[in-house]
Amino acid sequence: MRLVLATANPDKAAEIMAILTAHELVLRPSDVPDVEEAGTTLEENARLKAAALVEATGEPAVADDTGLEVAALGGAPGVRSARFAGEHASYGDNVAKLVSSLAGTADRRARFRTVALALFPDGREVLAEGVVDGVIAEQPRGSGGFGYDPLFIPDGGDGRTFAEMTAGEKHALSHRGRAFRALADRLSVN
What we know:
31% helix, single chain, alpha/beta, Maf protein, 190 residues, 7-stranded mixed sheet
């Protein structure tokens, strides 16, 4: 099955392509404008992105949205994870804001949630979710991955952050890996 990737984030596209190997994935055309993530939930944002790509290309599209939910912050940054430190925040800006927001906080429990959605031109959609629980490190560690990976220590990861793991180790444990493996399973029966 051929699917157009809705993400414009090259780091996320590379992860999805490494995980969703049973399907032909096509990179988002460069002439498709950015989609405003105006949804109030991860599912709404994934649907907005997929719908924009289906409309632009006429082909089935796959999109996702991911949120980091930190217990001590009442579930924030959540749906605003990519924009936690502001609209045009870098990965480093977001990491620094999270470190600062949790300074002196004992409860560092968190979870990553990804919603993955495939949308077809006929309106049919296939949805899957992946969740991984863990804790937030006091300082960034590791050089792999992207986003909050230097801070997130997943349960079952031997105390390492995602950024301290190989790509394969991360994909085996991660929210995105779980979401896209579940999506692949659902696409194979639909």
